Amino acid sequence: MNGHRQRPGPAGWAARGALLAALAGLVLVVPAGRGNVEVHVFTQAAIYAVIGLSLNILLGYTGQISLGHQAFVGIGAFTAAYMVSRAGQPFLAGIVMAMVVGGLQALVLGVVSLRVTGLYFALVTLAYGTMAEESLFNIQSLTGGSAGQPAPKPAGFSTDLRYYYLCLAFLAAVIWVDWRLMRTKGGRALLAVRENPKVAATNGVDVKVYTLMAFVVAGVFAGLGGALLAHNDTFVVRDLFDFQLALVFVIMTVVGGLRNRTGVVLGSAFFSLVGYFFDKLFSGGLHVPGLKVLPKEYVPIVIGPVLLLYTLTRHPGGVGQQIRPLQRWLRGGRFSFKDTHERDVRVTDARA
Amino acid sequence: MSAHVLAQAVVIGVITGAGYGLVALGLVLVHKSSGVFNFAQGEFGTVAVYTLYRVHDRIGVPLVPAIAVGLVASVAMALATERVVVRRLFDAPRVTLLVATAGVALLAISLELWLGEARLRFIQPALGRLDRFSLFGVQVSDQRILILVALLGLAVLLGLFFSRTNLGLAILAVSQEPVATELMGISVRRLSSFIWGLAGLLAGVAGMLAAGDAKSFGPGFMTFGALIPGFTAAVLGGMNSLPGAFVGGVVVGVAQSLAVSSSAFKAIPGPGAVMVFVLLVVVLTLRPQGLLGKA
Amino acid sequence: MTRRSSRVAVARGAAVAVALLLAAACGQKSDVGPARSAAPAPAGQDAAGGGAAVAAGPGGSAGGGSDVSAGATPGPVASGASGGTAPAGGSAASPAGGGPTSPASGAGSAGAGRGTTGSAAGPAGSTAGSPGPTGRGPASAGGGASPGAAAGSGGENGGPGATSPVPAPPSPAAGDRTGVTEGKIRIGVHAPITGAAPFPQSAFDKGKDVYWKYLAEKGGIFGRNVEVVFRDDQFNPSRAVQVCREMVEQEHVFILMGAAGSEQITACARYANSMGVPYLSAGVNEDGLTGLSSYFATSQSYVQQTPVLVSYIVNKLHKTKIAIVMNNTPALNETQQSVTKLAQAAGLDIVRNSRIGKNASDSELLSEANALRTSGAEVVYLLTSPVNFIKLATNAQAQAYSPVYLGPGITNGLNIVAEAGCPAIGAAKFLSPFPQLDVIDKLDPDYQKSYEKYNGGRGDDIGLAEWGLSKVIGAMLQAAGKDLTRQSFVNALESGRDFTTNVYPVVSYSGSIRFGAKSSHLLEADCNSRTFKTIAEFTTGF
Amino acid sequence: MPVLEVERCSIRFGGVQAARDVNVRAGEWEIVGVIGPNGAGKTTTFNIVTGFYRPDAGRVRFKGRDVTGLAVHERTALGMGRTFQNVGLVKGSTVRENLLTAQHLEAGYSALAGMLGLPGTFAAERRLAARAEALAEILGLTELLDTRVAGLPYGVLKRVELGAVLATDPDLLLLDEPTSGMGPEEAHAFGATLLDLRREFDLTVVMIEHHVPLVAQVCDYVYCLNFGELLAEGPPDEVRSNPEVIRAYLGQEADEVLQQGTS
Predict the structure, then answer these.
(1) ipTM of the complex
(2) Model confidence over C331-387: pLDDT tens digits?
(3) Which chain B residues touch A126 with a CB distance below 8 Å?
(4) Range of the domain at A199
(5) Which residues 95-114 of chain A have a CB within 8 Å of chain B?
(6) D1-79+171-263 belongs to which homologous superfamily?
(7) SS3 breakdown of chain C: % helix, strand, coil, rounded to 5?
(8) Which fold has domain C303-437+521-539?
(9) CA distance B195 to chain A (A)
(10) Which of A23, B283, C379, C392 has the fewest other C-beta atoms within 10 Å?
């Protein structure tokens, strides 16, 4: 930010404080007043945010597209479920193992990405996701097959509300890591690699290693997200992790705004909540005259693509770019739209 | 596995694979002309089938005109995609376009889920008795014979189109040398529309044949069932050769059905998907120019 | 892009997300309208307002949601590898206070009492925890109150419930009265209308209320009419748990019913049990359901149906070579074993014994068809989803292979299966809890009459299935008496009396017997009419 | 002991022999010029030196160590710094970010420690930031620190790139046409800067350069390549008056060279 700008007066700070407090209230206090079923949905929003940030590392920072992210998440979910209900391990062990396994499988895919880049790599991830869905998640001894695997909530967090706060804590941790990553050498290296591997290398960046690192981090986040998802539903089944989900993940990240933490979090939360609020607004589905009722399950995949295409063609920066004025204002800057129309943000892969 | 099962697998593989080949053709055409990986290719087909079903079963239009309407629908969707999405993102990175077309596909699927019912629909075979013919001791339904014939016919027609007609040659030209073609006085833009339309048509035919073969269809069945094999087929063909794509389709189809019917894979669930994934990765890593594509 | 449009974009980008969250905060549609179209700054102020309103939330302001649900100690059933959900405290937020949550659920309802946790009546009405496995508990006063969610752990009580618009007089008797008011009984049904089981939703919707309307005209159940809440479980167990949760914790249904799908039924039954909600379903697997104190099967389980079918193969079909094909889910292992055992005992030759995935691909089903053909099985004992069955049969027939298909089932005997599967399925035979349309007029003339009356046109078999199930439930509710509570309902069932409907088999339960159906109907596909015909009513064997 | 020794390096792409038996030596503190008409193999030689190309034959020694087998980033770690003909910067980032990115190896903490936000890393980042600003100061980029690189004029980009390379703390600076796009006097000014920088960061410099006057001004030794082969080497004046060289330049730059020769 440019150093020389006049600071807002006390009133200004008060207003900013009020807004922040209100937002904090929305996130922390509101769910406390809601029923379990609704808290369950809010929890899912927090978890989606984790997943969104995971995908953002690939799609945004390294420009590697992943159309198989449902596999990343699913593997985490099933690992956690297996650890808890088959191996009889405690919740935390399940989480850790989910992150480890998530990271490892991402590493393998990363190795492939070193040879196969751009559009072709997108194909590989697509096939990978489907393979996981059709085959991996059907191995009964591991996933319980079509009957699925139970994943009870951890002791001490057995109510939806407490579990919600637990997930918020995990989200906070992920945000912290993502923030520090981009403020230190690792993140800078990733951006350089994404834009111009040659330059990155001349700057002393080991392109291979950092690409793999990005995959591992993304995999670890996704694994965590999956594990949390499993325990939130207390039950995990393969049917959950289909191609649509993968696309929803991509959409929520892109619409949220690549390389924009806040945007991605908002976008992810939005797409996990939209069906639910839609249901609240028009209870029992949208009655379009002449058409069938639109059930809430389908809302995200109906409006998702529309928002996606709108974002890609009109606002490549996504939500994140549009709320920059607000963020700048909150940081004490002026409220101006100067950079809400830059089109430099793109779903891009330098090697595509 | 027994000789019978083997023969069976091969025959089935060839038929389903030819279907993949059609999808692959569309993918390659589009990729050659505009460098786009079109993830909506499969959905063009599904839309054609849904339209056909609605017009034929609901409104009661006889089959042949209904089929025509269905194909028109898929072509229209393809053209719309080209106009509304692809042109707007013309200078955007190709991956952006990929995501965009994926968005188009998802939109189509969600509309199918919403407007048509979410469940699988079963359709009666167009032909009555099912088991008249026998290839290598394998019973093959009239339906499948019909499909095989249709596919071969289509392949031949396409071959002629691209080797004999000016338009066909122009398309090949534009895919090799856009600028040169422009100089030759052929409008690349108009060609682009035409190519997308053609891709839509191919997808439509592929969708109808696939639905006829499985005797059932549901929302997004082409995307979930044929898109990935189609891409794999295209990659086998090096993403640039039309015959290569078609042959690649057959290869994928046979490989898939062998994997499914061979007892070796019994332990693994979903052997078909595994086979496709392995095939794709192996080809891309070991022979990126494709098995049949020129280096 | 112009500065102006970017401003619009900001409104869209920032405000929508914030505004939607506000909708949650205030639970009012009206709050969303302005906030949505507002520029971010005002939206921010709204947020502040929302935040303020929320601060009062837990206190139970009429606007915000009311009762805070604290932790419930995971019951033995829920915490284990049980497939059930952990009994998350209480039965959800006030449907009344948070109007938009579920407008329909304005009906007063009482929270469930946890055996140990005494439930303290809040000023506005009740609070209560989720019942333990026994589902017994002291009554909470004021049927008019929204169910509070009381903590299991430490037994701290939730905040006072918000008053509901429809007050109901407090009832004298002890018991859990959720979903029951003077005029109404709310029951929840889940069934797959999307996914691998092809049920046309339209048919479901048409049929679900016919019997209850019919009953209402005859005075209802002690003056109460039954309202059915329906949810689609998408043939997915996880989804089933979610929708059952919604029905229990948001819609506050009195009891739950599962129409079909063993995995969905098992998953949901376990959840219902953890919440002490009585759960009834057509008979499926026993494994995973036995021992659930709130579960009752309204028809014979798959295992119970085995001897009937085996005796049919031996004495009626006179075939010896059979193949067993079942969906590949652990819940059906017991069925597979029982069939294998009985078949061998009856001297049948099991030439193939295979399981296929619920989402098996076409080519997998094709190769299964081949394997069956090569195995030379004359009879295929089949227990799969209708989709898999039809595809399997079609592929088999394309191989000029047409064995006799038969098996237990609820969904495979439906006419839509014959419609889609004929001619491939041949004269397939399936046991069913309900008869087919060809005999219903003889067994229960009221069905078609009523269907005609409330929907117009002839009733279909899906409607008939719903009619039959509703009739059983109706009889049970009747038996529970005027003072209807979950406890009195369960007591009535466990009393061991017979429930006779002439549609569903006669059924009776006891404390230990939960699979209490005595017989089933045998249906046979008739591919000329593309329908199923009833070839044996209320059969117990051949 | 020479800092850089390129010994008889050859590489061919398909039918084209891009470099044959090229020898280049650069002693400590030397500024060595590499000249030659376009397509003479100058940049190819740079790519061999920095590791983007593996030579089919020949060796590359850096500070006496054989680095022929090493990857680009490893050579950077040893102290090679290189600029590109078409500016090698992260265009999407600001000048400051570029200067930070270039200090990748100077960070003094692991990427993992960085993303976990371990205590030490914050101090380290402050250090890097300070160094970035110092460099900006030297190159007169302070005002531009927070502007995105993408928009900046070519000349400035060249300066930023130079700053980035210096940020990697190199011992050997390989400059690929540092003055392209500059006018004569700018070029001359650059020459002065270069001499200052050499003193300040005690550098050895190898630069590909077309501006013969600049070469004459700063270079201690000059290599002239043509068609991938070494045509002549020696002190600037010697090479400049070498008839072979003049012939090589005939056509495109000959007249230019000649009149400069007479001036």
Answers:
(1) 0.78
(2) 889 999 999 999 999 999 999 999 888 778 777 888 888 889 889 999 999 999 888
(3) 228, 231
(4) 35-330
(5) 112
(6) P-loop containing nucleotide triphosphate hydrolases (3.40.50.300)
(7) 40, 15, 45
(8) Rossmann fold (3.40.50)
(9) 20
(10) A23
